[in-house]
Write a structure and sequence with these properties.
rod-shaped, 7 helices, about 70% helix, mainly alpha
Length: about 150
């Protein structure tokens, strides 16, 4: 009989296999638990045999996870709302984008558009020779007017 086969017949080998099985089950349970609740949390709740030793801490973890999930959900919803609100003007979100709603009727918008075109011809930096601040203000007004 070889040495390995002889060793496999001993009590020591049987105990070693049991320990390996216990540790493997422990590592699998720990990995699954920590995937849900975070690194290092399993050991505060369970022992190496998988017996729950700290139920109050586990309850606290579950409550914290629910609170965090609710926070994530509400944050995502707020982001979506703000994103849609900010980019709904069609101008790509710049400060010069078109306003999403306007207080002007269509005839007033046509007049405002004419005013904008006349003023932009006069205040364009290539024509007026200034630093472009007048044109920036005019473009900002155009966005606020919703034209």
């Amino acid at each position: 009989m070889s040495i390995i086969a002889e060793f496999q017949q001993t009590e020591e080998y049987r105990v070693k296999k049991e320990q390996e099985a216990i540790l493997r089950a422990h590592r699998e349970a720990e990995a699954a638990f920590e995937k849900e609740y975070g690194q290092g949390e399993y050991r505060y709740c369970y022992d190496v045999f998988g017996t729950l030793r700290n139920p109050a801490y586990l309850d606290d973890l579950k409550v914290r996870e629910k609170v965090q999930e609710e926070y994530r959900r509400r944050s995502e919803e707020a982001f979506e709302r703000n994103y849609k609100k900010y980019y709904s003007g069609g101008g790509g979100g710049s400060s010069y984008s078109v306003a999403s709603s306007s207080n002007y009727n269509e005839d007033e918008k046509k007049m405002l558009h004419e005013i904008y075109r006349m003023a932009s011809k006069k205040f364009h930096p290539d024509v007026s020779g200034d630093d472009g601040s007048k044109m920036k203000l005019l473009t900002k007004l155009k966005g606020q007017w919703g034209i």
